């Protein structure tokens, strides 16, 4: 039977050159003090994006301070440091400028800034205390510069607890950004590897949303749209980063996958990858998902999941491949492998990021302890032995 809730309060401002609208929009959150959250790499300064954002905010009479200590896998201590500054400076709203990690951190900062205690007080699994936030988050403006997570349209944030192997999603309805300003021209400077990894992040968001047992008709439509666009345009963007048509398509695909994810939620592939990138912080999320993919989806194919055939059709159609209906499910993994090869990620190895075979039992335990709920909405039962085997095959 069909049951779902649909709530989407984010205003999406989408298109090339739309960053300029930050200085004109009447929908900017109220207040005169903003914190702009960026990554520690300095790319937002080098590209001039930070200066532009601060300039557009000043057109509204908004003063802004910058927090620039966000790692590629953001950590709780940075969130808590930024929160203290927000309270001291009486910040009215948060601007997340950068990739998905930066926007995730901005959302966590916004929630903690209006609530007492530490971030892990509001985490529902692992060593989290599972408290309910008493107050809504500060308003958030999300400006993505990568086409990957779709975090600009979701109420979730993935943070690693500093000094631990707990990388856990935090979800609160007030963490939906008030504005998602998606300007594909900000993504033109992404190098090929980052383009490929972020594209695969969006791809697996869509795939997992479509397979999730809490999906909805709307999330299905968005997921299939994202998969179709990513399969068609990602190889082009990896080959030629300045191709505007590809960047626009992938920016929308990432946002569409995020919209789907906000309604349907990811499944256990994400539980497993979060364990990996918590253990090995240098591992890009999209790369981790990609390296798990063959083993994980071979397991799913062996369970004869009918909806895998729908995903195969979405992929095959985008690359002009016509398959008999009775071969669609079993064709998913071979087509996925060819797609991964086409974007230059076929030779990735988990061992290159520090994984050792003896780590596998601990990875499995962490996947269940920290993100166990995603196993509950996976369309087939998975035991610890199953997860161990998938990690083993991915490692090999």
Count of beta strands: 8
- Integer tally of domains: 2
- What summary fits the major beta sheet? 6 strands, parallel
The number of helices is 14
Strand content: 5-15%
- What is CATH's topology name of the largest domain? Dehydroquinate synthase-like, alpha domain
By CATH reckoning, the class of the largest domain would read Mainly Alpha
Task: Tell me the strand order in the biggest sheet.
Answer: 1-8-5-4-2-3
- So, CATH architecture of the largest domain? Up-down Bundle
What is the overall silhouette? globular
Mean pLDDT: 96
- As a whole number of angstroms, the C-alpha radius of gyration is 20 Å
Assembly category: single chain
Assigned CATH superfamily of the largest domain: Dehydroquinate synthase-like - alpha domain
Terminal Cα separation, in Å?
A: 40 Å
- The poorly predicted ranges are none
Structural class computed from helices and strand pairing: alpha/beta
Reading the helices and strands in chain order gives: EEHHEHEHEEEEHHHHHHHHHH
Helix share, percent = 40-55%
Structure report:
The chain has 396 residues and is α/β, with parallel strands linked by helices. It has two domains: 11-187, Rossmann fold; 192-395, Dehydroquinate synthase-like, alpha domain (Up-down Bundle). It has 14 helices and eight strands. The strands form two sheets. The chain has a six-stranded parallel sheet with strand order 1-8-5-4-2-3, with helices on both faces. A two-stranded antiparallel sheet has the order 6-7. Strand 6 (156-160) and strand 7 (167-171) form a beta hairpin. Helix 5 packs antiparallel against helix 6.
């Amino acid at each position: 039977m069909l049951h779902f809730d649909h709530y989407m309060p984010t205003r999406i401002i989408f298109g090339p050159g739309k960053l300029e609208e930050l200085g004109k929009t009447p929908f900017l959150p109220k207040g005169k003090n903003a914190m702009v959250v960026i990554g520690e790499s300095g790319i937002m300064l080098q590209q001039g994006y930070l200066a532009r954002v601060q300039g557009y905010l000043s057109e509204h009479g908004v003063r802004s301070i910058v927090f620039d200590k966000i790692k590629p896998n953001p950590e709780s201590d940075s969130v808590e440091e930024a929160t203290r500054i927000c309270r001291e400076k009486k910040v009215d709203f948060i601007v997340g400028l950068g990739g998905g990690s930066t926007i995730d951190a901005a959302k966590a900062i916004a929630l903690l800034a209006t609530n007492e205690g530490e971030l892990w007080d509001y985490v529902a699994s692992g060593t989290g205390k599972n408290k309910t936030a008493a107050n809504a988050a500060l308003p958030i403006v999300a400006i993505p510069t990568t086409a990957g997570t779709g975090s600009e349209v979701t109420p979730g944030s993935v943070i690693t607890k500093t000094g631990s192997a707990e990388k856990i999603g935090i979800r609160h309805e007030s963490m939906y950004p008030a504005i998602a300003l998606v300007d594909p021209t900000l993504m033109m400077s992404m190098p090929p590897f980052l383009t490929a990894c972020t594209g695969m992040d969006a791809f697996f968001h869509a795939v997992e949303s479509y397979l999730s047992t809490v999906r909805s008709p709307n999330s299905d439509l968005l997921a299939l749209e994202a998969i179709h666009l990513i399969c068609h345009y990602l190889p082009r963007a990896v080959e030629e980063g300045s191709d505007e048509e590809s960047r626009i398509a992938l920016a929308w695909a990432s946002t569409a996958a995020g919209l789907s994810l906000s309604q349907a939620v990811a499944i256990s592939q994400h539980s497993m990858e979060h364990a990996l990138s918590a253990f090995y912080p240098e591992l890009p999320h999209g790369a981790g998902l990609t390296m798990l993919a063959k083993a994980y989806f071979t397991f799913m194919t062996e369970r004869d999941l009918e909806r895998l055939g729908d995903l195969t059709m979405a992929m095959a159609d985008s690359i002009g491949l016509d398959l008999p209906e009775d071969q669609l499910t079993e064709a998913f993994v071979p087509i996925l492998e060819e797609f991964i090869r086409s974007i230059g990620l076929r030779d990735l190895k988990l061992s290159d990021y520090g994984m050792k075979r003896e780590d596998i039992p601990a990875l499995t335990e962490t996947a269940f302890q920290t993100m166990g709920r995603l196993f509950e909405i996976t369309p087939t039962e998975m035991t610890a032995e199953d997860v161990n085997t998938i990690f083993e095959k991915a490692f090999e």
